[in-house]
Amino acid sequence: MSYTGWILLTASLVGLSCGFIGVLLILRRMAMMADAISHTVLLGIVTAFLVTRELSGIHMLIGAIIAGLLTTVLVQWFHERGVQQEASIGVVFTSLFAIGVVLIATQVGNAHLDVKHTLMGEITFIPWEKTHIPWIGEVPEAVVMLSAVLLVVMIAILAFYKEWKITSFDPALAASLGIPVVLMHYVFMSLVSVTTVAAFDAVGAIMVVAMLITPAAAAYLWTDRLGIMLVLSGLFGVISAILGYYIAAWLDTSISGSMAFATGLIFMISFIGSPKHGVVAKWIRPQMLSS
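Structure for Manganese/zinc/iron transport system permease protein, as requested:
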């Protein structure tokens, strides 16, 4: 595959996995948790590096999952003690992210890990860092990691589709039916953490947040059915990745930033043109009823 092809495949895998997870975030009204976890996993990544002195491996995922769950637990703990949900998220994510930044500046040294890398990623380097896969050949490490995470996300969503649906729309009903709502919540937060760290090195925090929230928000404007929403969100993520790459090539600017910008374009198109919740449809409907 060509250099451009690997970049597009990597970004598309990010769009798919983040798009699927993002739908459940939107339905659970936890969009800001995506922003929080996408930043606080930095602390888990840095801590894992300080323990192992290696920038790749399963320990990075473990560190990210622990950081994501720590964020969730702390936010819930503060909220249960009277702090507003939004304030809890703001306090926890800025504090943990700041600790990660300080550790990078003071402890990491010359390793390929810095604040700019954290925010914007290094997707242009992805095609050069390859690993050998039997019967396939040389494949970028990020593609292998993102493919594995996408597979895990899809299996988790399909295997517990009814449970995700009920716990997202009506947690009280789910609890009355015997579904372990709290356990499902922390499993979901683990999926968010794994998805985030898998995309972190390639595209950075800014694009991770954009891919987790915006395609799902756009899909929500087009349909009320969960299955269709998941498909549309993943599709919008892939379109954003491809469109963003060519915008970056045209303007000679940041690839990750352009992909995040492309998610905004798709959301605006949906906001204006979706048949049920779009601005145009809301304007036309009263006109038709009155005529």
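Residues 3-204 form a domain with the ABC transporter involved in vitamin B12 uptake, BtuC fold (CATH 1.10.3470.10).
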